Amino acid sequence: MSSRAGTRSRLVVDERTRQALDRLGNASARVRIALVAPGGYGKTALLDEIRADDVTVVDDAHLLDDAALRPLLNERRVVVAYRPWPRSQVLSELARTGTVLSLHPFTKDQVREYLPGANRAVVDFVHAQTGGVPRFVERLGATTEVTADMIAAFRHDIEWLDADMQKFLLAAEAGVGLRLDLLSGLLGKDVDAVSDLIEEGRATGLLAEDGTLHPIVAQAVAALSRTERRIAVRQRLAELQLERGGPVLELVQPLLGNGGLPAAVLQAAAREALPVDPALSARLLSAAAGGGTPEPEVAARWATAAAMSGDLDAALRLADQVISGSETPHRRTAAEVAAVALAHRGQLARSTELFRWASTPYAQAFAGIGLIGTGRLVTENPPQPPTLLGGAADLMLRGIQQSVTGAETAALSTLVRASGLLEPAGGAVLLPDSPAALAALVAVHCGEPGVAESVLDRAVETGTGGVLMAVRHRLLQAWLHMQRGNLAVAREYLMAVRGAFEPRDWIFAVALEVGIARRNSDLATLRRTWEQACEAVLRHPVDLFSFLPLGEFAAAAARLRDQDRLQPHLTEAAEVLRQLGNPPLWATTLHWSLLHAAIIDEHPERAEQHAAALAENRSHNRYCAIISSAAESWLDVVAGKVDADQVEEAARGLHATGQWWDAARLAGQAAIRTSDRQAMVRLLDCARLLQGRPATTRRTPDNEVSVVVEDTGKLSDREREVAQLVLEGMTYKQVGDRLFISAKTVEHHMARMRQRLGSTSRSDLLAQLRQIVGG
């Protein structure tokens, strides 16, 4: 084999082949060698190595007839090279009386030998693309990119083939190289003739032994074949496959947009695409409609695909066309799709009406969840079909029923089981809400953040509910981090799903913005985000499953002195709870949020009312007891009565329920309100530990100025914390709120740093601090 520039100029052959060639040097020896291999395997290059004058050398012997080949049987020293197809009686006889050398594709080691200096990545790429066929390795060279020039080099290999072989290569490029039934229909040949054609294809070297094209050859066949012929082959194969009830998606997908495909083929491809690529399914169904008004069946399927891909506008439009049309079995499917879309848009009441109208088993279960979510208790459980979705829908309804009847532990277990049951379905189901999201909400409301984290992680990993549920799962993960005080992580999760939110996701996203800003004492961001919060609440009617953002908005409204705009929605929430019998699980967390809103608003009477409501459920379960105890501690602290033992116990209880930020806040606020210095240090240490920060090593009151550090330019850990927050633009009060110290103490820290660093002005101090702490 001749070598191109940059490759070695000698052959790469195995030891047996090398020994056979060496025997040609012995002029007295009788030698008959048959080199058998597909095209491109190096036969000609081996013949070029033969230097003996008394040896008869014949290349491409498969092109000669038996009459021309028969004299070779009388030759004493002969080397004949030919492809394994077409078969020849003379060549077979020659092979029986001589040595047969079958050439094989290069191994990776041989590719490495042929391409000296090529690294492992290059060798792997070249071998994968070429299948080790020497001619193709030579064409590709040491590279990790297939260029247009490399593809063009295959033009001669393909164009000299007859029409049937070119059609067969196009079928192989479409992935049906060994489907004799399809090839027989495509080529109009019987199975024996098709088998011969496949053997001929292998002999060209373009096909691997398993009948597939080598990747670089597949690219060349697709690029160099006439477009109309490629389309015609795939169309015919798709029709044949559809007649046999086989998959057609891979055949149809490359042709999408070219037109000409039968509607039945497109619809079949859409059904295949729906579980794995709903957006592609929607495009296929759009093509099947041909630009006109789709039939009800097509429209219902199209609406389903659109909803699963996140295009709720298209889903609602198509579903409405079917629902408002004449009576067909597809109206109920369309109603289910519309109900799911409206649930994601926060219209739970309207969604529930449509589910009830659809009246399918799944729809009835989801309608029951919606009824409870809007304040109407449901005790019936419609029978479900024995499917993954049927089982999950049944468990979801039972779990929500248990959550409002006082069986919180059972509710959480039921919803977690529902989530696990639906995991194998991944994104192939259309859900108004996922069992994982409902389980996480229940877990947060009953102080089980570990369960919420686990079930959400699994839902994200398995893609439960597809793209429609992906954002909701991520936002709930962010919520857990916000509760724990991991505000930077919560923001990262929030930023990762930025986009055009549906109203149900938007209300959680805005609540996260508000909650993070409030916890950061970032009043500017809080004010800027508040208008979005008010709009989000207007767009999303109150339901049981939106209590978390509603509670966060209540605290923000109190901080901004804008409670009147939120009050009607809080009244609706109270009515939902009343209609459900004030279930402790859902009432406790909302009262806890409203307690804080009243404290921020400096309205002790209202705060005491919420504390009393929490106390009513104190004996219900451990979580209710912890929250009630924490509420009492907060009221005592605000009133200036600090019992360090009581505060620490309450704070640690909150921490155990996942509310790390609230826990640290309680301990910190108690610390700055007590006059007992020993208690203050103890509570500050408790606050730091609950935040995941180390406790102080020096038992000095935090309102004293930090000990001077001898080396100029060095800051204590506390000073670094203060400096970093000031450089982020916080006021002294905001820094104090974050670190559980007074604004006066922050001012003392700044004065001490200015004195130590010898700063002549505030701007000079800030410039030096930026150099020191990297701000």
Write the layout of secondary structure elements.
Blueprint: H1 15-23, E1 31-36, H2 43-48, E2 56-58, H3 66-69, E3 77-82, H4 89-96, E4 99-102, H5 108-114, H6 120-130, H7 134-140, H8 148-152, H9 155-159, H10 163-173, H11 180-187, H12 191-204, H13 215-224, H14 227-243, H15 249-252, H16 263-273, H17 278-289, H18 296-308, H19 312-323, H20 330-344, H21 348-358, H22 361-373, H23 388-404, H24 408-422, H25 435-445, H26 449-462, H27 466-483, H28 487-496, H29 503-519, H30 523-539, H31 547-560, H32 567-579, H33 584-600, H34 604-616, H35 622-638, H36 644-656, H37 660-673, H38 677-690, H39 717-727, H40 732-739, H41 743-757, H42 762-773
Parallel strand pairs: 1-3, 1-4, 2-3
Helix pairs in contact: 5-6, 10-12, 10-13, 11-12, 11-14, 16-17, 17-18, 18-19, 18-20, 19-20, 20-21, 21-22, 22-23, 23-24, 23-25, 24-25, 25-26, 25-27, 26-27, 27-28, 27-29, 28-29, 29-30, 29-31, 30-31, 31-33, 33-34, 33-35, 34-35, 35-36, 35-37, 36-37, 36-38, 37-38, 39-42, 40-41
Largest sheet: 4 strands, parallel
Low-confidence stretches: 1-9, 697-713
Structural class of the secondary structure composition? mainly alpha
Average pLDDT confidence is 89
Rg is 38 Å
**How much of the sequence is in beta strands?**
under 5%
Task: Assign a percent range to the helix content.
Answer: 55-70%
Task: Tell me, briefly, the overall form.
Answer: elongated
How many helices? Answer: 42
Terminus-to-terminus distance: 65 Å
How many β-strands, per DSSP? 4
- Work out the oligomeric state of the chains in this entry: single chain
- Kindly report the spatial arrangement of strands forming the biggest sheet: 2-3-1-4
